[in-house]
Amino acid sequence: MIKSEISEIKKQFTHENCTITKVSGCYVDGEKDIKTKFTDSFLCLPEEETFKYFEIFKKTVSGTIGKNLINMEFPTSTEFDGGTQEFILKLRDSNLKDETIIDEFYDKVIQMYAYVGNYLILLVCAAYDVPGKTNDKIMMEDASDEVYSYILCSICPVNLSKPGLSYNTEANLFQKRIQDWVVGAPSNGFLFPAFNDRSTDIHSILYYSKDSEELHNDFVNQLLGCEMPLSAGDQKKTFQSLIEETLGDDCNYEIVRNIHEKLNEIIEEHKDIPEPLTLDKAEVKNLLTDSGVDEEKLKDFDRNYEEMAGKNVSLLAGNLANTRVFEVKTADVIIKVNPERIDLVQTKIVDGRKCLVIEISDQVEVNGITIKTACL
């Protein structure tokens, strides 16, 4: 799914556009025991409650694609009898009216989800009458070719509120606040089926993780049967290690700066394209070549890439570069530069020592104090 498709689904989580029919929940304590379960018609709930639910549902489809939101495809083997995709599809098709399959889903989550503490599993089913679009991408609310039926799962931590003082209006005094158990923002969740090309794709799923570096790989693999890609941080570390391994003793400032510039250029050229930019093995290799890496250094690149990243694995370009800042770091000094002006930092030999030389303008501040460059 791309940003616009995710945004279109997120817009359904309002009272004006709501397409949710049912909501089910299961409250689990720290001992993995079920405390309570419920299933309700969503629009029959008090309005103040539905507002809170909408906040949770919106969070479950929020974040950066490739970091918090992961597009995944089901392996073909999961779509046969007894497969994970077949089970999730059966859950979707039940419209949350079959208590047996709902309970089976809850049992699977409780068994597979590694979490210390209390949490709430929320499930909703919805049916979105997808509006058509003109060639100018204008929505036609009265022209629909498909009803997108989906389920959204949100797993939310439930924590005891903090102790404190509160004002009692009836007694007109301050007193100890009553602590209660509060449902927090979702930690994990998923949308199934995926809404790819603004249409139902039962072969794909959109997975959410609040922590982009703690994706719960085992949970995803066991419950959904999908192979979790490298996290955003691991992709960046893999890319950095690949450069260091490839360049070896020739890993100098100029080459690394060139790689950063070329990568940012590619990202900039792609910014108006909705699909996230990915780089496969060949494209990463071309990036290094275009940045000035000798062909001799690339002789073992394919093998190193497959060992570090994996075979047939692509990396998200947005996870590999920081487009907001270019950082040079030594043991005692950190230099942060506007990526568009990294030409201001160069390496030179000064008095027989290797130095980083920074060209300065007339505007220089030291600890917030403007100094005169003539006095430097």
Q: What's the number of domains?
A: 3
Estimate the mean pLDDT confidence.
Answer: 91
The H/E string reads: HEEHEHHEEEEEEEEEHHHEHHEHEEEEEE
Termini gap? 53 Å
Q: So how many helices?
A: 10
Largest sheet: 8 strands, antiparallel
Q: How does the overall form come out from the CA principal axes? A: globular
For the CA atoms, what is the radius of gyration?
A: 26 Å
Number of strands: 20
List segments where confidence is low: pLDDT < 50 over at least 5 consecutive residues.
none
Structural class: alpha+beta
* Helix content class: 25-40%
Strand content: 25-35%
Question: How would you characterize the overall build of this protein?
Answer:
With about 375 residues, this protein is an alpha+beta fold. It is about 30% helix and about 30% strand. The protein has ten helices and 20 strands. It has helices spanning about 5-10, 45-60, 85-95, 100-110, 215-225, 230-245, 255-270, 280-290, 300-310, 315-320, and strands spanning about 20-30, 35-40, 70-75, 120-135, 140-160, 165-170, 175, 180-185, 190, 195, 200, 205-210, 280, 315, 325-330, 335, 345-350, 355-360, 365, 370. Strands 1, 2, 3, 4, 5, 8, 9 and 12 form an eight-stranded antiparallel sheet that branches. It has a two-stranded antiparallel ribbon with strand order 6-7. Strands 10-11 form a two-stranded antiparallel sheet. Helix 6 (about 230-245) packs antiparallel against helix 9. It starts with a helix and ends in a 5-residue tail after the last strand.
Topology summary:
Elements: H1 3-10, E1 20-28, E2 34-41, H2 47-60, E3 69-73, H3 84-93, H4 99-112, E4 118-133, E5 139-160, E6 165-168, E7 173-176, E8 181-183, E9 188-192, E10 194-196, E11 199-201, E12 204-209, H5 217-223, H6 232-247, H7 253-269, E13 278-279, H8 281-290, H9 301-308, E14 315-316, H10 317-320, E15 326-329, E16 334-337, E17 345-350, E18 353-358, E19 364-366, E20 369-371
Antiparallel strand pairs: 1-2, 1-4, 3-12, 4-5, 5-8, 5-9, 6-7, 9-12, 10-11, 13-14, 15-16, 17-18, 19-20
Helix pairs in contact: 6-9
